[in-house]
């Protein structure tokens, strides 16, 4: 679908593809728990002011994708291609400001910029915007980080510039803080982990 060149597929990826055909097991947590409406990140607000075409929203029906093997391979290709193509740089080094979200048109960016490009590429390829949600998390060090959540009939999966593989959200080790609403990309909702408390006890709250 995307033609980004050959990608090696390890045993872990093969196992995930096989698992896509299997029913969910009892106890699996497929979806994060949604909370109340919360403030949009200032980076998103400023990005939308400069790029309104990438932020068109308005009320719409939430749509999840059907996670077929073809869709899974497309996610892997996009995630790896963007991760390999964009070079990491802090906003301070890049723009001289603490926080700025932008599409990495010059080939450089930080985590939000990787997310924006992956989201745009998938939307341009025909994926429903309602299933592609920019998400703010706390990483394993307790630091702020952004990833792209893909909402599917098989659960929620994460595209991350810190990992070449696409993982189920429960496998990331992150503390999920907030993300875009499926019904409107300019509305953000807080997130609560539905996993056992031990899985998130070490992460600091935002």
TrEMBL record:
Highest taxon in the source lineage: Bacteria
InterPro entries (UniProt xref): Transglutaminase-like_Cys_pept
A Pfam family it matches: Peptidase_C93
PANTHER family: BLR5470 PROTEIN, PTHR39327
Protein name, UniProt field: Transglutaminase-like cysteine peptidase
Organism for this UniProt entry: Bradyrhizobium sediminis
Lineage of the species this protein comes from: Bacteria, Pseudomonadati, Pseudomonadota, Alphaproteobacteria, Hyphomicrobiales
């Amino acid at each position: 679908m995307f033609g980004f060149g050959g990608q090696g597929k390890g045993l872990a990826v093969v196992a995930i593809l096989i698992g896509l055909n299997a029913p969910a097991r009892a106890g699996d947590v497929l979806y994060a728990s949604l909370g109340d409406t919360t403030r949009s990140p200032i980076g998103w607000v400023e990005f939308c002011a400069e790029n309104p075409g990438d932020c068109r929203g308005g009320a719409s029906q939430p749509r999840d994708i059907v996670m077929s093997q073809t869709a899974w391979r497309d996610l892997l290709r996009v995630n790896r291609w963007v991760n390999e193509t964009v070079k990491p740089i802090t906003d301070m080094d890049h723009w001289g400001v603490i926080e700025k979200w932008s599409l990495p048109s010059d080939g450089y960016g930080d985590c939000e910029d990787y997310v924006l490009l992956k989201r745009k590429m998938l939307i341009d390829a025909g994926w429903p915007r309602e299933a592609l949600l920019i998400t703010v998390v706390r990483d394993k060090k307790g630091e702020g980080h952004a990833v792209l959540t893909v909402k599917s009939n098989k659960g929620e999966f994460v595209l991350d510039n810190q990992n070449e593989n696409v993982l189920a959200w429960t496998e990331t080790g992150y503390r999920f803080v907030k993300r875009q609403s499926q019904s409107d990309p300019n509305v953000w909702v807080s997130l609560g982990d539905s996993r056992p408390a031990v899985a998130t006890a070490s992460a600091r709250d935002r």
